[in-house]
Amino acid sequence: MDCVSGDKPDPALHRLLDELADDLMNLSDAELLAELAADGLDVEAEAAAARSAIAGGVARVGQARLAAARRAVSRDRKARVVRPPLRADRREAVLTRFANDDPKLKGRLTMAARKGEGVSEKEIDAILDDLRELGAIDDEGNPI
Amino acid sequence: MNRDAFDPDEIRAALDGLAAIDLARLRRTGRIYALGLACEADDLIGEAVAAILSGARVCPRTMALVPFLIGAMRSIASAARGSTGRVKETVSLDATGTDGRLLVVPVDPDPDAETRLLAAEDMSERIMALEALFADDEQALLMLMCDLEFYSKEEIMTMNDLDDKAYATIRRRMRRAINGRYPAGWTA
Fold it and tell me: Are residues A75 and A93 located together in one domain of the fold?
């Protein structure tokens, strides 16, 4: 039997296990109780263990829902944060200071200056917002 | 909402209402399906409950909860067998929609080649262990071999000259032997 090359999980034991599970399902409660007793198993202890396993499954779903709710709240809060724009006289200074430490940003500003285009207000806002989101500057533009 | 299926609150209430004997049956069946897996019955039960409550598996109102849970355990065990042998989460509960609603995302069950090779070796060892378990019971051993060759119940009965009652008796003997040899599921 080739269990390796098949695309589906190996079914070797499926049939046997299904037959055995069917047999268990066909047992009457009294037969099952007798079988448990014969194997030295306590039905209440078995039930308690199953309840604990069920509680584990319930908890897993609950935790996932809680985490999903937290992510949604966090997303909502982020979306609602409206930061006041930096004072006009601070914007260029903050940008220049960070450009000195960031070759990529510096290159972008230099290129824009050479072309005589400058950097758009929208782009400056986006860069400053990123710096505030990253915690690099506070709302006044001061380094943190 | 699907009115033909139980909702999560109803499922939770039904789980709370299960009698001790139902729970014991669930666990005993879990042990059967855990055979051949690197997990225990309780892992299968927990995963089946999570799959139902998350909506990954929908329980129709026409179906009793215990058989439905057993069917879910069967599917989970079947997916795990042949991969790593471990019960993986069959659905991911990590994703959320833009409205924050929990999304149920099926986890890709396809194992890589190395994993499948290891699983095949492991399965081979487990089958050998079952053959050893039934070494002194010729009828059970024959039935195991027929299972591994995918013969149908009718074919097995014809080949071994068994009627329904004799067939069921051998099956029960096999199950009792497996339950007795592996009371807490498979331990190599």
Answer: no
Question: What is the per-residue pLDDT across B58-101, written as a single tens digit (0 to 9) for each?
Answer: 999 999 999 999 999 999 988 877 555 555 555 555 555 555 55
Nearest CA in chain A to B126: A13
Q: Half-sphere exposure of B177 toward its Cβ, with a 13 Å CA cutoff?
A: 19
Using a CB-CB cut-off of 8 Å, the residues of chain B touching A79 are none
CB B89 within 8 A of CB B121: no
Per-residue tokens: A90: 């601070």
Count how many domains chain A has.
2
Q: Do B81 and A10 touch (CB under 8 A)?
A: yes
* pLDDT for residue A142 is more than 50: yes
Contact list in B for residue A70 (CB cut-off 8 A) is none
Q: What is the ipTM of this complex?
A: 0.75
Which 91-110 residues of chain A touch chain B by CB within 8 A? none
On whether both A63 and A23 belong to a single domain, the answer is yes
Whether A74 maps to a domain, the answer reads yes
Residue keyed to tokens 């209402």: B17
Q: Which domain holds residue A35?
A: 14-80
Q: pTM score, two decimals?
A: 0.65
Nearest CA in chain B to A36: B24
For residues A14-40, average pLDDT: 91
B86: alpha, beta or left, given left = phi > 0 and alpha = psi -120 to 50? beta
Does residue A60 sit at the B interface (CB-CB below 8 Å)? yes
Whether A95 and A46 map to the same domain: the answer is no
Subunit contact B29:A58, Cβ cutoff 8 A: no
